[in-house]
Design brief:
Layout: H1 2-5, H2 7-10, H3 22-53
Transmembrane segments: 24-45
Keywords: Membrane, Transmembrane, Transmembrane helix
């Protein structure tokens, strides 16, 4: 399965720079920021609830 995932990056027949589109890069950055913010909010909520219940 991993060879399928990395086949485009590790392919010897393609150029060494496979290139990521600007839209794909921005979508990845936005997704990582949203997921990071969600983790931060969940962490803050959980620590606030645990602190008040102790």
């Amino acid at each position: 399965m991993l060879d399928f995932l990395f086949s485009s990056m590790l392919s010897a027949t393609e150029s060494s720079v496979t290139g990521v589109s600007a839209e794909g890069f921005l979508a990845c950055c936005v997704a990582s920021l949203v997921l990071g913010a969600a983790v931060a909010v969940i962490y803050m909520f959980r620590t606030r609830i645990l602190r008040t219940s102790s």
